[in-house]
Specification:
mainly alpha; 97 residues
């Protein structure tokens, strides 16, 4: 994934809202998050886990959650907010494991 200058962590209410939408959506969990977490668990066990690449994986979930939010509520998240939500998902994953 190509990183842009707007991909940095900013703990904003919007980013936290997107994070909550992403982790609490059963559709996203069963369609995307479950597979990503399973894959990252395997990488942790093998010792090849890369925290930066994990953010890239969770970023796809953030983008999908942002599309869902736009459709449901009409608010469009910025790249920074999506990236920040992905960082929060990564941090939450690491804290659980």
């Amino acid at each position: 994934m190509k990183h842009t200058k707007n991909m940095y962590f900013a703990d904003t209410p919007e980013a936290r809202e997107l994070y909550l939408v992403a982790i609490n959506s059963s559709v996203l969990y069963f369609r995307m998050l479950q597979a990503i977490e399973k894959n990252l668990e395997k990488k942790m066990q093998k010792g090849t886990f890369d925290a930066e690449k994990a953010i890239d994986a969770f970023y796809y979930v953030s983008e999908e959650a942002a599309r869902k939010y736009l459709k449901d509520f009409g608010y469009k998240f910025t790249v920074t907010e999506k990236w920040s939500a992905a960082v929060m998902m990564r941090d939450s994953f690491i804290a659980e494991h």
